[in-house]
Design brief:
The complex is a heterodimer of chains A (565) and B (213).
Chain A: H1 15-19, H2 26-35, H3 39-68, H4 78-112, H5 121-144, H6 175-203, H7 216-248, H8 261-295, H9 302-315, H10 331-359, H11 368-391, H12 393-399, H13 403-433, H14 439-465, H15 482-512, H16 550-555
Chain B: H1 3-17, H2 34-59, H3 70-73, H4 78-99, H5 103-135, H6 143-174, H7 183-210
Helix pairs in contact in B: 2-6, 2-7, 4-5, 4-7, 5-6, 6-7
The chains are: A mainly alpha (565), B mainly alpha (213).
Chain lengths: 565, 213
């Protein structure tokens, strides 16, 4: 699909101008990265940092699966298992999902709207470093968690940290404090990014780009940032209350003094459910850019797509207690949260049909990003269907706290979000580095990971239906759980192999990948009009756009999009 | 000739004739300033933050297991409230004065705003002193103490941040560094101050009116 179209891009700079990277000494290069306020560098630092923590938290997951592969295994002790479980969950959400996804938005939003940077570049750097040191604090708990009393190590309270387990009498030492402070810092950093993204999308668009002409990805970045603005503060507020409990003797969640453990659950899930959408909306955003390009068609139903995203964001703020059916809400409460949960499936269904509508009748190019995107469509559908099952209160009472729930949300987090992160990396790697990832290794990565994912998480649904509870460090033989667990653990091997291929591919392509040029996919949004990698100022001349696909207009002056919009 | 072909032919002719040009882009291309959108986003996220603390306060009204209870020890902080709310007026007038280039008038109104904010903090300090040393209510006493000091304290932290920002601008004004071109930044700071005042109305109603009945 690549072609020499340089001469048709008046609004870009030539590759040669940026290709002359002079080899600076290591200290200077480090200094450049540490002091940068460039949205592209910070975006890559977010993604790179997130991928490093992904490998760490992934190894923790692999250890968990190793321990559960056979009954009565003694690879880790119960305490160590609980720490693995807590850090795996916390890290995957705050140290992996959030930074990788905000990293992509950081990198792409200014490029896609023809801006030279985010609205507040220094605030952006501030947010990154808050996230970075917050993340280090979480793993530092392994060293510092014991405190003066030497009690405890890493936190072992689950990623949801239910009270009153987190109160001082039950959680000695500093493990819970590290959990609080680390996530508090990361959340403030994310809030800063969210403010920045909103200000950028509304105030920095290039001439001609009305809200109605913003790429779908930018729209979804706005919805995502809006959701972060209102969903993260509840967690921060609850964590501050918990700190007050632990250090000043307040009683927010202290049941002995009339405090309520249930209130923590409400506050946590008021954050926790929208957080799922904070993570999945970027996946929608990637799909909405990648699927049209590899189907060679415009996105089907742009307006409906944007409206559905706003609806998802809005409804997701009112469904949190479906995580709490088993605590015994009132019947009216149950009915409300079942209904609101069902409502989410309507805009979500609209989105799936729109992606299918985009592919329908298109010339589909099965390159690696598209393969991951197609797998995403199927897996996200299944994740949504099990979500509807669990959203029905009586069904949830039966299966709550079993591996069915674990399988369901891993289907969302891996089957949908991680698959789209892979798709996005294959798709935008050429833009960020100037080099293509290898197509053949991409195929290996895709199939190994796909097979591994389904071996592990399809099987865990059945383990859950067979009654296997979550968060147990081992189980007895003879309860019909052995084969499910063994298959699930074997699946991890395939996923790990896939990851090795992926990391190898990245390392090799950085050195010797095929040169990408500025527009390797024959795409339509503004980031492909500038050099790969883009210069610090993004665009030599600020672009002027007339339609949702400005590059299509440039490449096809005889039949521009603005005639039909 | 099918209709599709006819359309294609028509469009081609159009291009050849050169009669098709993209719709005009408004010139100048004006978008809301990043300061405004950023401040609106900040206020939105702060609102969510306060909502949780107010929710916790309301949730725990009447749930304290031991005295003191709010209606026995709280009295309306009327002078404080009047001061803080009037500071919203003075900061709005100050902001308007600056955008008209009346620096001296701005400086006087700005100083009054700062003084009113500091008065509020002193008033809160006196109230806390009374509650802690004379009534014996601390954050560990009961749920009322826990939620009262957290919510009022959180608001006072915001007043403190605002007062520091106002003091910084005051210093810069005295140094002669604030001019008409900074009017929009000053206006954004005034938005934050209005927000803090609006939160006080909610806190006042929750703590001193509804919570102390």
């Amino acid at each position: 699909m690549a072609g020499s179209i340089d001469d048709r891009f008046p609004l870009s700079v030539r590759d040669s101008e940026t290709a002359s990277a002079v080899a600076l000494p290591l200290a200077s290069r480090l200094h450049e990265w540490v002091t940068t306020v460039d949205h592209k560098k910070l975006g890559l630092m977010y993604i790179g940092g997130g991928l490093v923590f992904f490998l760490v938290a992934g190894l923790q997951a692999a250890t968990i699966r190793l321990q559960l592969a056979v009954p009565n295994a003694g690879i880790v002790s119960p305490q160590v298992f609980n720490r693995l479980l807590t850090l795996h969950g916390t890290a995957m959400v705050f140290l992996v999902g959030m930074p990788i996804l905000t990293g992509f938005f950081n990198y792409l939003v200014p490029l896609m709207i023809g801006a030279r940077d985010l609205a507040f570049p220094r605030l952006n750097a501030f947010g990154f470093w808050l996230w970075f040191f917050g993340s280090l604090l979480l793993y530092f708990s392994y060293i510092g968690g014991g405190g003066m009393e030497g009690a405890g190590s890493a936190p072992a309270v689950g990623w949801f940290a239910y009270a009153p387990l987190t109160e001082t009498p039950f959680s000695r030492g500093h493990s819970t404090d590290y959990w609080i402070l680390s996530i508090l810092l990361a959340s403030v950093g994310s809030t800063a990014t969210a403010i920045n993204l909103i200000a950028t999308a509304f105030s920095m668009r290039c001439p001609g780009m009305t809200l109605n002409k913003m790429p779908v990805l930018v729209w979804l970045a706005v919805v995502d940032a809006g959701l972060m603005l209102v969903a993260l503060p509840p967690l921060s507020a609850a964590q501050i209350m918990l700190l007050l409990d632990r250090y000043l003797g307040a009683h927010f969640f202290d049941t002995q003094a009339g405090g309520s453990a249930l209130l923590w659950q409400h506050f946590f899930w008021i954050f926790g459910h929208p957080e799922v959408y904070v993570l999945v909306i970027p996946a929608f955003a990637f799909a909405s850019e990648i699927i049209p390009v590899f189907s060679r068609k415009v996105i089907f139903g742009y307006e409906v797509m944007v409206a559905a995203s706003c609806a998802i964001g809005f409804i997701s703020l009112g469904v949190w207690a479906h995580h709490m059916f088993s605590v015994g809400l009132t019947p009216a409460g149950n009915a409300f949260f079942v209904t609101s949960t069902m409502l989410v499936s309507i805009p979500t269904g609209i989105k799936i049909f729109n992606w299918l509508g985009t592919m329908w009748g298109g010339r589909i190019h099965l390159r690696t990003p598209m393969l991951f995107a197609i797998a995403f469509l199927f897996q996200f559908l299944i994740a949504g269907l099990t979500g509807i099952m669990l959203g029905v209160a009586p069904f949830c009472w039966q299966l709550t706290d079993t591996y069915f729930v674990v399988a369901h949300f891993h289907y969302v987090l891996i089957g949908a979000i991680l698959f789209m992160i892979f798709a996005a990396i294959y798709y935008w790697f050429p833009k960020a580095t100037g080099r293509m990832l290898d197509e053949r290794l991409g195929l290996w990565h895709f199939w190994l990971f796909l097979i591994g994912f389904h071996l592990t998480f399809d099987t865990l649904h059945f383990a859950g239906l067979a009654g296997m509870p979550r968060r147990i460090y081992t189980y007895q033989a003879g309860r019909g759980l052995e084969s499910f667990n063994l298959i699930a653990s074997v699946g991890v091997l395939f996923q790990a192999l896939g990851m090795i291929v992926f990391v190898f591919d990245i390392v090799r392509s950085l050195q010797s990948g095929k040169l990408a040029g500025k527009d390797p996919w024959d795409a339509w949004t503004l980031e492909w009009s500038t050099a790969s990698p883009p210069p610090e100022y993004n665009f030599e001349e600020v672009p002027r756009v007339h339609s949702r696909r400005p590059l299509w207009d440039l490449k096809h002056p005889e039949d521009p999009d603005w005639k039909y919009e | 000739m099918s209709s599709g072909e006819r359309t294609a032919e028509f469009l081609k002719l159009d291009v050849v004739a050169g009669s098709i040009s993209p719709p005009a882009i408004p010139d100048p291309w004006v978008l809301p300033s990043r300061g405004r959108t950023g401040m609106i986003a900040l206020i939105a996220t702060e609102t969510a933050f306060f909502t949780i603390f107010v929710t916790a306060y309301v949730f725990y009204i009447g749930k304290s297991l031991t005295p003191p209870y709010p209606h026995d020890v709280l009295s309306y902080p009327l002078f404080n409230t009047v001061c803080l709310l009037s500071s919203s007026l003075t900061i709005a007038l100050a902001s308007r004065a600056l955008s008209s280039g009346l620096i001296r008038r701005f400086a006087i109104l700005w100083f009054i705003t700062w003084a009113l904010g500091v008065e509020f903090l002193i008033g809160t300090g006196l109230e806390w002193h009374r509650l802690i040393y004379h009534v014996g209510l601390t954050i560990r006493t009961n749920l009322f103490g826990t939620t009262y000091y957290s919510l009022v304290g959180l608001h006072a932290v915001h007043v403190t941040i605002g007062s520091l920002a106002i003091a910084l601008v005051m210093t810069l004004t005295l140094a002669g560094a604030v001019t008409q071109e900074h009017a929009e930044r000053i206006e954004m700071l005034s938005w934050y101050w209005h927000f803090v005042d609006a939160v006080w109305i909610v806190v006042f109603l929750t703590v001193y009116v509804i919570g102390a009945r």
